[in-house]
UniProtKB/TrEMBL annotation:
Pfam families: DDE_3, HTH_23. It comes from Rhizophagus clarus. Residues 106-213 form the Tc1-like transposase DDE domain. InterPro entries: Homeodomain-like_sf, RNaseH_sf, Tc1-like_DDE_dom, WH-like_DNA-bd_sf. GO terms for molecular function: nucleic acid binding. Gene3D superfamilies: Ribonuclease H-like superfamily/Ribonuclease H, Winged helix-like DNA-binding domain superfamily/Winged helix DNA-binding domain. This is Tc1-like transposase DDE domain-containing protein.
Length: 237
């Protein structure tokens, strides 16, 4: 698995945390079992998806024992944030209020996908060729998602996003809050808290089941929308 995207590595970890075996993960995500085992081993040791002590191209970096200790502290801190987020969601919000936002791309040079998911299923999606920039993300939120939201504490009133840089836009957050909605961010390294990851696996399963249809479709964006329409709330049952 050369130059695997962070997206793919986190999906490996998500499946691993769900209890899937390396062989099952490899079959689901179309990667080698060796690659799955390597990513999981790094995550178990460091709490991240890349070995911080692997030599990379460019100027050599020298790590001391202090750096290793900092890495371990960061991992433990993330576990605390993870627990607090779960507590906050469970105490302050109902599942009907939550809308999860995520960007998924297999290869940003080909196709990128923006999704908005609620308990009943997907409420909005934008699938595009190439990578997604800040303007495209803002347009997706303001024109497709926000019109379906309600002021807090109504149904569909709380946005939940990961900590990707594209999601931290002050003007966008203000626009959402002016409408009366709230914005929450997932803790770092917490793809397991975003149900869109589960939905993505269901979408991939559909594409695998109907591989002949997908392979004979000239428009990859169209077939992704078809697969998306088949991904319903039943995936959470």
């Amino acid at each position: 698995m050369k130059k695997s995207s962070e997206d793919l590595k986190w999906r490996i970890i998500y499946c691993y945390e769900e209890g899937f075996k390396p062989k099952e993960i490899a079959e689901r995500l179309y990667v080698s079992k060796t690659a799955v085992t390597k990513v999981c081993k790094i995550f178990n040791k460091w709490g991240c998806i890349d070995d911080p002590f692997t030599r990379r191209s460019g100027k050599r970096k020298i790590f001391a024992s202090r750096d290793m200790q900092i890495q371990k502290i960061a991992y433990e801190r993330n576990k605390t944030l993870h627990g607090y987020f779960m507590y906050q969601i469970g105490i302050e919000y109902s599942v009907e209020q939550l809308i999860f936002i995520n960007k998924i791309s297999k290869d940003e040079r080909s196709v990128s996908c923006l999704y908005a998911l609620m308990i009943d299923g997907f409420i909005a999606a934008d699938i595009m060729e190439g990578s997604c920039d800040k303007d495209r993300f803002q347009t997706f939120i303001l024109t497709q998602v926000l019109p379906q939201m309600n002021p807090y504490p109504g149904k569909n009133s709380v946005f939940i996003m990961d900590n990707a840089r594209i999601h931290h836009d002050e003007d966008l957050v203000k626009s959402i809050e002016v409408f009366g909605c709230r914005v929450l961010y997932l803790p770092p390294y917490s793809p397991d808290l975003n149900p869109i990851e589960t939905a993505f696996l269901a979408l991939k399963s559909w594409l695998k089941k109907y591989r002949d249809v997908a392979n004979n479709c000239d428009d990859p964006i169209y077939i992704l929308f078809v697969a998306l329409s088949q991904t319903t709330s039943s995936i959470f049952n």
